[in-house]
Design goal:
Length: about 250
């Protein structure tokens, strides 16, 4: 696969993606993951707004799953119609629960976790290959930062040294107990889903990402990128979000 190659895999159902609905969805809500904040979505935001979307970015406190869900629901309450909800990494767990909000018409997982009902984030790793370059240093207060020495290779290998250093030094720590909190009801059982999987991701085993996306019935796009795909491959991510906005209403009907 070349550096910018894409491979689309159909939804894990007998049906192909239907033609675009007559009314494309305008609203998009972006949810960041652990060790980051909403600023990483800047390029995706710019591309989607240029295409006419109304984009809002959630700032997760990363203090608990329920706190992050609450932050996302506040933003969803502000939307004026059907909305595409997008999550990166830990943000995938957040949108899996917050996606039950009635405004949400479709879900987009960007190298993201997608637990099933009753499952937690930590359990998704079981049975899959370890990721030794993704090292979390946990403090006495239970909050974790990504290790500075392995940050670039583990999180943002395809970013410039300057961008990777900024991401590293502007980390938002997460309360590690959040990873043990189960999802009550996985919204992907009821809402159509799309997924972007970074093939050079050193944070998650690609087989784990594929397993979760296929289980959610997501239409998958593979792209050569690191875990920071939301930033380094903003063109691809925004394109998938735009496709979801074009098709979600027709897919759900």
């Amino acid at each position: 696969m070349s550096e910018h190659a894409l491979e689309n895999v159909g939804r894990a159902t007998p049906h192909a993606t239907p033609p675009a609905s007559e009314k494309s969805i305008k609203n998009v809500v972006l949810v960041h993951g652990a060790f980051a904040d909403g600023a990483g979505w800047r390029k995706v935001y710019e591309k989607l707004t240029a295409e006419g979307h109304r984009v809002t970015i959630v700032q997760n406190p990363l203090t608990s799953l329920q706190d992050d869900i609450a932050a996302t629901l506040r933003v969803l309450d502000m939307q004026d119609g059907p909305t595409i909800l997008v999550g990166h990494s830990w943000g995938g767990t957040v949108i899996t629960e917050a996606g039950n909000h009635p405004a949400v018409a479709g879900l987009v997982y960007v190298s993201a976790l997608a637990p099933d009902s009753g499952e937690n984030t930590a359990g998704q790793y079981e049975g899959f290959a370890p990721t030794p370059n993704f090292t979390i240093d946990v403090g006495d207060d239970g909050f974790g930062f990504l290790n500075h020495d392995t940050f670039k290779i583990g999180f943002a290998a395809d970013a410039s040294d300057e961008d990777a250093a900024f991401l590293r030094d502007s980390q938002v720590p997460i309360n590690m107990s959040a990873f043990a909190t189960p999802v009550a009801h996985a919204a992907w059982h009821d809402k159509p889903a799309w997924a972007v999987i970074a093939t050079e991701d050193q944070s998650f085993d690609q087989a784990m990402l594929r397993h979760m996306a296929e289980r959610a019935g997501a239409e998958i796009t593979y792209v050569s990128a690191s875990h920071a795909v939301f930033m380094t491959q903003a063109d691809v991510v925004s394109r998938v979000v735009h496709v979801a906005a074009e098709h979600a209403l027709a897919t759900a009907s």
